[in-house]
Specification:
With 444 residues, this protein is an alpha/beta fold. It is built from 14 helices and 14 strands. A 5-stranded mixed β-sheet has the order 3-2-1-4-8, sandwiched between helices. The N and C termini lie far apart (109 Å).
Length: 444
């Protein structure tokens, strides 16, 4: 075939071109993307009806002294369980809550779910919010946490920490400023295990001080910093079954594995947890008390945490000693103790002024928590005891046989066990709640 040496007749095409091309505003782009998502997937009726607008909150709203914190460039891992009937609403709420965080860089956020099936929907949703997405094939939520941490650490060589957000959480807008103010403690104090955003006793009647942070000898989990050294030593590969092969609600890293290391947790939680209504049915009553009982969470404001430098091991012990020495004794008699267990309102809850109180309890031996659990009930704290008032399960949130909590609007209470090092300097030891009182109440 020869080469063609001529072209066809000239064609003249005319049209109107605007002098200035219109570029879609970010909100218009978002609305169009939401429309495409809602056309492709069902089950998001409220989200698709409202189609809320999410505008990135600039880093200028982050306190000046925290903007350079590594927290704002730290991988954030959302490990989500899509196997519950309310998963779609819970996932929307969890992703939405992250968009309210000032200075959040969305490229550092990764959503993970189980695969290989049914991954198209969470992948599209993560993309809609500007987050990354990964799926892992092993079945079971605990395996998903393990595989997600392993994958994130392997793909981020040199990263020292990952912020792990478990399933069905909503986060406070100041969660990153909270971690930015506490991260350095993990760098400088080898007696610390992690920093968590969850207070197991953080109810509206037992937490009030958004600037207050505690040490505890337990591991609350839910939303927490995972140090690479902790993962390498006690979570990676073969170590995982010994450490974490059960839901975090049952407590990871039991005492013999914590190696005398403590956790940092806030008085007012920076995460809230929506209960998985069709999961862990054997824990149904447990979950209601743990998650549903009017938890308090920080608001939009950023709070400067107080006494952060005193959270290191030796300094914190001095802080507790001083609290115990200066606290006013709060005496609980048999009648008040009985009222606590009959389901009525206890007069103890009216001690809500600015005074700090101490309550001493008798322990027959070091691991005797019966009286401590009983007194905790008087303040409607979380007690995992299956309604047995003399249960000996260690009270969560303890620090060296003491438990401190805030009483709204100000002031605090500390429960002090007789086997604690702080008991000897307390003025309440002469009015301690005794085992005899407890047995008497139980027999009433």
């Amino acid at each position: 075939m020869g080469v063609r040496e001529t072209f066809g007749e000239t064609v003249k095409i005319t049209g109107c071109v605007p002098k200035q091309l219109r570029v879609l505003e970010p909100n218009e782009v978002w609305a169009r993307e939401v429309g495409m998502f809602c056309s492709a997937f069902t089950g998001y009726e409220e989200f698709c009806r409202v189609r809320p607008v999410y505008t990135a909150i600039p880093s200028s709203q982050v306190p000046d002294n925290l903007r350079s914190s590594p927290v704002y460039r730290m991988p954030i891992l959302i490990v989500f369980d899509m196997g519950t009937y309310d998963a779609q609403d819970a996932l929307i709420e969890q992703l939405t809550s992250l968009t309210r965080i000032p200075g959040l860089q969305r490229e550092f956020v990764t959503l993970t779910t189980e695969g290989p099936n049914f991954t198209e929907e969470p992948r599209a949703l993560a993309s809609l919010f500007g987050f990354r997405y990964k799926s892992y094939d092993r079945r079971g939520y605990i395996n998903l946490i393990h595989d997600s941490l392993q994958g994130e650490f392997l793909s981020n060589y040199g990263v020292k920490y990952i912020l792990l957000l478990e399933s069905h959480l909503s986060v406070s807008p100041d969660i990153l400023t909270y971690f930015a103010q506490t991260l350095h403690l993990l760098e400088t104090d080898p007696t610390l295990l992690t920093v968590t955003a969850w207070n197991e006793h953080g109810f509206s009647h037992s937490s009030s001080d958004r600037s207050l942070v505690y040490r505890s000898d337990t591991f609350p989990g839910l939303g927490w910093l995972v140090p690479r050294r902790l993962y390498d030593e006690q979570m990676a590969y073969g170590a995982w079954p010994l450490c974490c092969n059960w839901p975090t609600i049952d407590g990871w890293l039991p005492a013999d594995q914590r190696r005398n290391r403590a956790s940092i947790s806030p008085d007012v939680s920076r995460v809230t947890r929506a209960p998985m209504k069709d999961a862990f049915t054997h824990h149904r009553k447990f979950l209601h008390r743990y998650y549903d009982n009017n938890s308090r969470t920080a608001t939009n404001e950023s709070y400067n945490l107080v006494d952060v430098s005193q959270l290191r091991h030796d300094d914190y012990r001095k802080l507790v000693f001083n609290f115990v020495k200066e606290a006013k004794t709060l005496h609980i008699n048999k009648t008040e103790l009985l009222e606590c267990f009959q389901g009525g309102d206890s007069d103890l809850l009216v001690y809500n002024n600015s005074t700090n109180y101490a309550i001493c309890v008798e322990q027959e031996k070091f691991n005797d928590f019966r009286t401590m659990n009983a007194v905790a009930r008087c303040f409607q704290l979380f007690v995992d005891d299956n309604d047995d008032i003399v249960n000996n399960t260690p009270l969560r949130g303890l620090y060296e046989q003491t438990l401190r909590f805030a009483m709204p609007p100000s002031g605090a209470v500390m429960i002090i066990g007789s086997n604690s090092a702080y008991y000897s300097v307390s003025s309440c030891k002469s009015n301690a709640v005794t085992i005899k009182q407890l047995n008497s109440v139980q027999s009433t």
